Amino acid sequence: MRLCFLVEEEYRHDGMPREVIAQLGAWGHTVDIVRPGRSLLPLSSALTAGDHDAWVLKTVSGGPGLTLLEAAAHTGLTTVNDVRAIRGVRDKALAAVIARTHGLPVPVTYAAARAEEFARIPEAEFPLVVKPADGSSGRAVRLVRDPGELTATDQAPATGLLIAQPYVPNSGTDLKVYSVAGELFATERRSPLHPGRAVRERCVPLSAEVARITAETGAAFGLDLYGIDVLFGPDGPVVVDINDFPSFRQVPDAVARVSAAVLRLARRGPGALTAAPLPLPVTVPAQPVVR
Question: Which parts of the sequence belong to the ATP-grasp domain (predicted)?
Answer without folding.
Answer: 96-274
